[in-house]
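Lab notebook, design round three. We kept the backbone fixed and only want residue identities now. Task for the bench partner: fill in a sequence for the structure below.
Input structure tokens:
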């Protein structure tokens, strides 16, 4: 695992002149990030292709993409881990999956036992085609789920707003509407 605390990682050059790089973009929760990094032993780690802009926005790389009509299932690689209090705080966000349709959706991560764990609810926003090359979901609002409460150490109540997510996909990888 790579320690990205206090390091600006810009990642690979953009795929094209638009500057869009496919993936899930998420800052998790600004106050949580500041809390972890404000602790004397607070650390932030990224692994398996996760990148950060150095300001708390993480990009998880695109791995899988399924679409059936208005329903989307988009899998991402990577892991971000937050640690503090000599290991008492240890939050791992591993291999996020976005499941979304016109009624909303969920962002899930791999739980400790490998099972999918839905941590935030998503509000729907229709994807937009940009320059014929990219399908981009505008900022999707997020709120913590009951299952997500435990992931973040029972500090936040279910329904607490977390940072918006953004998803960028190469248009040629998006399956036709079926």
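Proposed sequence:
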């Amino acid at each position: 695992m790579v320690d990205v605390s206090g390091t600006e990682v810009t990642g690979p050059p953009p795929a094209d002149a638009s500057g869009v790089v496919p993936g899930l973009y998420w800052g998790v929760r600004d106050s949580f990030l500041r809390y972890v990094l404000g602790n004397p032993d607070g650390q932030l780690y990224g692994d398996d292709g996760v990148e950060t802009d150095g300001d708390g926005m993480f990009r998880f790389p695109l791995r899988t993409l399924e679409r059936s009509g208005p329903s989307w299932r988009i899998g991402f690689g990577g892991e971000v881990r937050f640690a503090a209090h000599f290991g008492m705080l240890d939050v791992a966000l591993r291999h996020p999956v976005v499941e979304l349709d016109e009624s909303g959706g969920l962002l899930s991560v791999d739980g400790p036992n490998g099972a999918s764990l839905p941590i935030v609810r998503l509000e729907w926003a229709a994807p937009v085609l940009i320059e014929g090359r990219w399908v981009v979901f505008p900022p999707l609002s997020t709120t913590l789920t009951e299952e997500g409460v435990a992931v973040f150490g029972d500090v936040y109540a279910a329904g607490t707003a977390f940072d918006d997510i953004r998803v960028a996909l190469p248009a040629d990888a998006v399956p036709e509407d079926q």
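Keep this in mind before ordering anything: The mean pLDDT is 87.
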